[in-house]
Amino acid sequence: MSGLPSAGHALLLDPSTRDDPTLYRRLHAEAPVLRTAGLWLVSGYQQVSRLAGDPRLVIDPRAGDPPLPLTQSERLESIFGGMLSFRDGAAHRRLRQLVSGAFSARRTNALDRTVRDLVAGLIAQAGDAEFDVVPAIAERLPVLTTCRLLDLPTEHWSRVDAWARTLTGQLFRFGQSADQLAEVHRQVDEMTRFIDDLAAERRDRSGDLVAELLDAAQGADARLSHDEFVSFVVLLFINGLETATAAISICVAQLLHRPELAARLRREPDHALEVVDECLRLQSPVWLAARRSLAPIEVDGQVIETNDPVFLLWAVANRDPAIFAYPDEFRPGRAGRHLAFGRGPHHCLGAAMARVQAAEVLRQLAAYEHLRAGAGPARRRHTAALNTYDSLPVTVTPAGEPLSRRAEARLHATSR
């Protein structure tokens, strides 16, 4: 295991070292559970899956010793702190049960036509023969889908998008000036008033998602406080904003890299979801998840002690040869369930929706028979947890050509 602890630790400190399947293979073979520099890296598929469901590992950084804040702003701390994303145990189970209806198979399936129309509209708006998929489609589609899910009029979409990006940028951000925080608080006040007005408008609307959440926050047996209700709606605004953008970008990058893949999707568009799953297995949008141990945990003959930081490496586990044969090869339809959207109680709520969005983008771009990478450079971005793209130019020829009648007819006839 010579040099492996330092090489493993570099994965956290220097994301540019992450595209190294040789290191992945060493971790799987020599140390699927590795202690380095006072923390744990877990990279084996079975070990990651087990620990992701262990209640002794918590996601809330405020539960550690010392507790760590989520944001610099006390106002935002109360909003983020009430979210499902940062709750554990019984509180998490209660909130998850209440919000799961928002992402039920029924609601997700009902969005198929909506997502198809949104993608077609975004491609049409891009207009030119060459455009950048990230700002034109990948960044906009998740927010627009959420706005449709909440049945918001189109005049509100840009406001929701701006609020979502402001809030997402505040998580784990510190050192801002008083003026910067004042502007953030102004936007939060504006957003909260919007949510309260939305609640008053939707109070008695049957089958409405906001009305369902509001119902859970009212009466003597209310299951949600008002603050939790607001946090839930905010969570819907920001859910998957960065991860869905990353997932779409990763899938399009594979489409551009593999001309045979686009040709296959033109012939067999109903295989798009299995293509998405294999793209995300090879390059997981969320590279890792941070947890902290509340009690000793024995795994593979080692003991994770109380308060130890633990990093579950989804991306490395997705290359485990014990689960995925020839793990570095692109093989859509392979056996095995990838961990790109996590595992356990904190499995991504929006996973099904993100898959639908990415699959539809692949179908519609692949329908252009002359799709190829654009002249500008594709720019990848690695953060502590995220693997995504800042830019991904594509060219469709000729400029402005709509989907061919043959491809369009196939898209609308395909049953998904």
From TrEMBL:
Query: What is the protein named?
Result: Cytochrome P450
Tell me its family: Belongs to the cytochrome P450 family.
Q: Which UniProt keywords apply?
A: Heme, Iron, Metal-binding, Monooxygenase, Oxidoreductase
Q: Which GO terms describe its molecular function?
A: heme binding; iron ion binding; monooxygenase activity; oxidoreductase activity, acting on paired donors, with incorporation or reduction of molecular oxygen
- Entry's InterPro entries? Cyt_P450, Cyt_P450_B, Cyt_P450_CS, Cyt_P450_sf
Q: Which Pfam families match?
A: p450 (PF00067)
UniProt keyword annotation of Lipid metabolism present: no
Q: Where is the composition biased (Basic and acidic residues)?
A: 403-416
Q: Where is this region: Disordered?
A: 397-416
Q: Tell me the superkingdom of the source.
A: Bacteria
